[in-house]
Each structure stands twice: as structure tokens, then as C-alpha cells.
Amino acid sequence: MEKKYWDINDIIIILTTFFAVSTITQRVFPFSVNRIVGIVLLMCLVADMVFHANRKKIVWWMLVAVLFGVSVLVSEDLKYNLESYIYWMTTLFLLHKLTRASASEMLLEAFAKNRFIVKLLLWLYTACNTLFLFIPECYESYWGWGGRGYFQGYASTPHTLASASCLFITLACLYLLLQGLDVVVLIGLLVSLLSVFQSGARVFLISAVCIVLVASYILFRNIQYRLAFWCVGGAAFVVMFLKSGMMDKFTAVISNKTTDVLAAFTNARSTIWAIDLREFGKASLIQKIIGHGFDYVPKINQMYYGDPIWAHNDFVQLLLSVGVLGLAIYLLSIADVVAKMKCSSFFVKFFFVIYIMLPAFMNGLYIYQHLVYSVFYLWLIAGLYSRRDIYLRTVIKKGLTKKI
């Protein structure tokens, strides 16, 4: 029988799903709903870690706590430093939760148990996102490289909107794989794909493609059906790309003659990385090991580049912020999640790794919490490759779904 009370897994499922809705409606509210949701989620993850602590985990989190203490001591902008640290720590907590032996089963059961709330939130997201596409003020002209504004809904930026779209796409794919066809959710998935195209956020377009490839690979076990879907989807991709704001972004990059090709293609990210890595080389040994705090990179980029922005690269950002030690913790956490994935398909694992590493390298992963949550759900989707039938039989037996 279905449990009548909520546990931490239920709260995590509901909060991360709600986060997609609160992200695309950010500018509607006079305060940050996302910040409240993020803090509550972090508290749940901390409580979950305490309940399931072991010696290895305790040592792990003691190192993270030491890095936090160092960051606070050396910080000149405590608010920015604390906010960035929370993003990084939440990412580590979510990744470590997935490495627990029974994580997949518990989270999928929580998803099934709360399927009606999830469906309601997915329907609400679909209604809002579809409506926003027709509202002129939902297109930000400031980001329009190619002469038109990029779609951002009521999110803070087009990139935030694209990141939230990836979260919705993973949620929609997981819901459709487990609960069967839902026309509203399917429409929401297609609208979200369109939103990514219209956002002009190139990295997130590749992320969206990775989700669709993984989900379709699991859905279509017959090779002919799979190839047919990819051919039709590929043709639709080309048509949408040519008519979208994404095409404007690529056209602007190609026609940009004021900078070198690499700087133009990366939107000056390569220039920022060179500046930041040069500063890392100048640091003392202890600073190389434990970092300068999260507010150090914006300070350096303001000094040498004229803009107080983060590195747009997790590895460069963490290298300077929490040093080699913090970067190693981050990379080992990602490697552990991939190693513990319950999936026998190299194809699925490959695109899961691309989904994490590409945005982490080209834009930043942990700073986009919506994208971090989508990694959480893509990991669950990937695990269905070998265990979907077993999962369905289990939840049917427990009365959590009637799907067969």
C-alpha cells in the first residue's frame, strides 16, 4: 500500500519539480522563491546525509567544511561567497545521494508515489511556458546578438530559462517513461525544446539533445524504431534550428571579425580562462591546494577583463575558489555517480557524461541548480535501461501505478 506520509525523498522530488515552475516565473514575484526552495532542499539533503552517514562520508564532508571555513576567512564578499558555496555543496550532496546502494529504487518509488503532484506541476509549467512564448516582454533584447531578442519567459535570463527547460525535459521524459502517454506533458516537452532553441543558449541545446537521445534509446528497444525516431527528430531539429534564435547566435559568431575565432565561438570564455589560469599559476602552494574563496574569480576578472563574472567553467572556477582539493572532490563525486549508475549501455553512459561535462566545461554546471537537478533525473532515467520492467512490476505491486 502507498505510504500516507512524506519522507525526505518525497520532499526532494516535489521541491525539484516545483523549482522548474518557480524558475520560469522568477520575475513575477518580488522575492526569490528559488532561494527559499534551494535552502529547504539543502536542509533536507543535509538531514538525509546525517541519517545515512558512514566513516567515508564523514571524512569527505569534513574536508568540504574545512574549505568552507577557509572561504569565509579569506572572503571579501561574504554574500557572494556563501551563495556560491551553497550551490557547490548542494551539487555534491545530490551527487552523493545517487551513489547510495538503494537510491534509484527509493527515488523512483517517491516519484511514483507523488505522481499526481508531479503531473500537476508539469501541467502548470506547460501552461506558463506556452503562454510566455506569445508575450513580447518575455524576449530579452539585451541578449540579442543577431538582431532579435532571446526567449527567457519570466526567468532572470535566457540561459536560466534554457536550464529550467532541461530540468522540465528530464522530468517529462521520466514521467512519460513510467506513467505512459500524457498529452499535456508531451506538449510541454515539445514547447520546452522550442524554448531552448529560442533562448540562444548553445550549450543547453546540446544538453537537451542528450536528454532526448538517452530517453528515446530506452523507450525504443527495437533498432529500426529507434533509428526512425532519430531520423524524424533530426529533420525536425534542423528545421527548428534554422528558424530559431539559436541560428542568430551562430550567425553572429561566424560574422564576428573583432576577436579571434576561439574567443568569438566561446563568447570570450577562452580569454577569461586564460586570465584565471594565469592567476592560479601565480598563487602560493597553499592557495593552490585550498583556493582563494568563491569571490576571488569575479575580482580577478573585474581587474583584468573589466567584468566581475565567474569563470563560466566549473573546473577553472573551483581551481581558484577551493583549490586542487575542492576540484578533486568535485571530479571524484562525478566519477562516483557514473560508476554507480545501474545501466549496462555504453551509449546511455556516454551521453550522460557528456551531459555533465560539456556544460561544466563550457558554461558552468553547479551554478545552474536547475541543470544540476536535471542531472539527478537523467541519472534515474539512465538507470531504467536495464531495470524499467522490474521497476514497473514493483510499483504496480505496491499500488503506486496501474501502468503495465
Based on CA inertia axes, which overall geometry fits? globular
Strand count: 2
In helices, the fraction of residues equals: over 70%
Q: Note the beta-strand portion.
A: under 5%
The N- to C-terminal Cα distance equals 17 Å
Assign the structural class, choosing from mainly alpha, mainly beta, alpha/beta, alpha+beta, or little secondary structure: mainly alpha
Mean pLDDT: 86
Q: What is Rg?
A: 21 Å
Low-confidence region ranges:
none
Write out the strand line-up for the largest beta sheet, numbering strands in chain order: 1-2
Give helix and strand order, one letter per element, not per position: HHHHHHEEHHHHHHHHHHHHH
Largest sheet: 2 strands, antiparallel
Number of continuous helical runs:
19
Helix-strand layout with pairing:
Elements: H1 8-24, H2 33-51, H3 55-74, H4 78-98, H5 103-113, H6 115-132, E1 139-140, E2 150-151, H7 158-179, H8 183-199, H9 202-219, H10 223-242, H11 245-255, H12 261-265, H13 269-282, H14 285-290, H15 296-304, H16 314-321, H17 323-339, H18 346-362, H19 369-397
Antiparallel strand pairs: 1-2
